[in-house]
Specification:
The complex is a heterodimer of chains A (110) and B (115). In chain A, 0% of the residues lie in helices and 55% in strands. Chain A is mainly beta. With 115 residues, chain B is an all-beta fold. In chain B, strands 2, 4, 5, 6, 9, 10 and 11 form a seven-stranded mixed β-sheet that branches. Chain B has a four-stranded antiparallel β-sheet with strand order 1-3-8-7, with no helix packed on it. The chains are: A mainly beta (110), B mainly beta (115). Chains A and B meet through strand 5 and strand 10 of A and strand 4, strand 5, strand 9 and strand 10 of B.
Amino acid sequence: KNEVEQSPQNLTAQEGEFITINCSYSVGISALHWLQQHPGGGIVSLFMLSSGKKKHGRLIATINIQEKHSSLHITASHPRDSAVYICAVPPQGGSEKLVFGKGTKLTVNP
Amino acid sequence: SQTIHQWPATLVQPVGSPLSLECTVEGTSNPNLYWYRQAAGRGLQLLFYSVGIGQISSEVPQNLSASRPQDRQFILSSKKLLLSDSGFYLCAWSVPASGVPYEQYFGPGTRLTVT
């Protein structure tokens, strides 16, 4: 079964700072997901990526399949980016189920 | 466009009482459906997974059960709630895929407090 580790667990930043959240997993995968959980609990899928890099606005996600590692970057962070960011991967190759990291709680102060 | 609904949004129930949470998906056919739980201070945990009507896979032994009476309806139930059942319950769906990366879409969630 895939083990997912996220770091840091908590992150506090000042508005405008560049943010990096890391995710490592133990078993090869077909795709990795980055999710955002708002303070009210709702979850939004940010990225699903299987190689290279994806960019959406100020968010950038990268993945290194060989090293079993992914990073989520936020450029020019803003208080509205404050949320829990969760990494998720299949438990084993080809599975449509997901195993989730414990999340990184990001707080961006004005 | 596709939409996923969950209700109720919040629920407070006494220990030993029954539970029924409902999830419905609109705008897609034959989706895979999932029930997840997020306990306080813990990550999301897959509880049940369904690939079709009446087809339920249980991931974690517990006093919860799930049913899929219709293609786009997924119900989470319990006959007698435990304190440990408290948490945030999320329903999600995905389009069945073969060899292609899939994406899961989450509902708004139900916050359950067992007292």
